[in-house]
Amino acid sequence: MQIVKKLNTSSSSFGEYSSKIALIFLGNLLCSVAFNGFFIPNHMISGGVSGIAMMIHYLTQLPIGLVVFVINLPIFIVGAKTIDKKFATFSFISMLALSFLLEITRGIDQYIQLNDILLAAIFGGILNGLGLGLMFRNRASQGGLDIIAAIFKKKYNVNVGTGLLGFNTLVIGVSSTLFGLVPAMYTLIALYMAYKILDRVQAGLDTKKNVIIVSDKYDELGEVILKKLKRGVTFLQGEGGYSKNNKKVIYCIVTSSQVSKLKEIVDEIDPSAFMTINDIEEVKGRGFKSVGI
User: Fold this and answer.
1) CA 223 to chain centre
2) How many CA atoms, within 13 angstroms, populate the side-chain half-sphere of residue 207?
3) 59: buried, middle or exposed (CB in 10 Å: 19+, 13-18, 0-12)?
4) Domain boundaries, the chain
5) Which pLDDT score, from 0 to 100, does residue 150 have?
6) Topology annotation, domain 208-280
7) Quick one: which of 65, 71, 94, 90 has its CA closest to 80?
8) Residue 287 burial by CB count (10 A; 0-12/13-18/19+): exposed, middle or buried?
9) Over the stretch 92-118, which tens digit does the pLDDT of each residue have?
10) Of 5, 182, 183, 216, which has the highest C-beta tally within 10 A?
11) pTM for this predicted structure
């Protein structure tokens, strides 16, 4: 019986790792297409080490994949001691995949042939953001500044997209002095698109909502929310500012797809209830799966 359990566990782990690695390769493929198909033909750059590698490529014509690998090695050596080992392992696999795929997708711009630099910035940014999002959702990155951003996420809870955008300001500044202000400005558009998509993909399409309900029928509302939405309810002690009456306040977290159903429940039970609904960046705990780093 124990042998069967071990076999099931190992096969499950193998399937999980295989799917993660496949998604990591897909993410890097999207990023490579964005680089070689949209950014490089328009003399734009990406963020982080990839952006530095692009600048070196423009100046020396050295292969971008090789430059990415060489720059990333010392960063991985330092970062592996600080961040989660599993994240570092998958990130190293991701970095190798990026270096390889950057060479495989060279010349893909001949098939895209997009001469509009604004469209290149927008759609290149979207592809890049989707690729980065897939990697971060599977606990991987492309190394370099992504690892530094992951450390900031872990220690200071700074959004990955926000952190990367801040770190890349210096890279964009250097590129503007070397290749002109116009490509750098379009690069900023591409990076903004990429990191907005990254944060959205990492958070998931079905975002979470923080709900506060003030109602005299809190017991009935709480019971129905538990039964119909399968979401936990917390009662907070409140006091009316004008009436000075003590009352319980309902606090709960639901998915965005459950908001309309929650509104129906509140309207049916207590149409005069006071309710606020706010977006939540991240939820960790029972009933919610934490994603990303």
Assistant:
1) 35
2) 14
3) exposed
4) 2-203, 208-280
5) 66
6) Alpha-Beta Plaits (3.30.70)
7) 90
8) exposed
9) 888 899 999 999 999 898 888 888 999
10) 183
11) 0.69
Total count of residues recorded for the chain: 293
From 194, 175, 180, 140, select the one nearest 54 (Cα to Cα): 175
State the pLDDT confidence band at 126, using cuts at 50, 70 and 90.
very high
Amino acid at site 207: T
Which is nearest to 121 in space by CA: 159, 172, 80, 77?
A: 172
The tokens for 90 are 């998958």
Q: Which tokens go with 141?
A: 């990155």
Q: Report angle CA 126, 151, 103 to the nearest 5 degrees.
A: 45
* Complete edge-to-edge strand list for the sheet that includes strand 208-214: 234-239, 246-255, 208-214, 274-280
* Tokens (6 digits) for 39: 């950014």
Which amino acid is it at 25?
F
At a CB cut-off of 8 Å and minimum separation 6, what does 285 contact?
Answer: none
Convert the pLDDT of each residue in 68-78 to its tens digit: 999 888 878 77
Residue with tokens 């129905």: 224
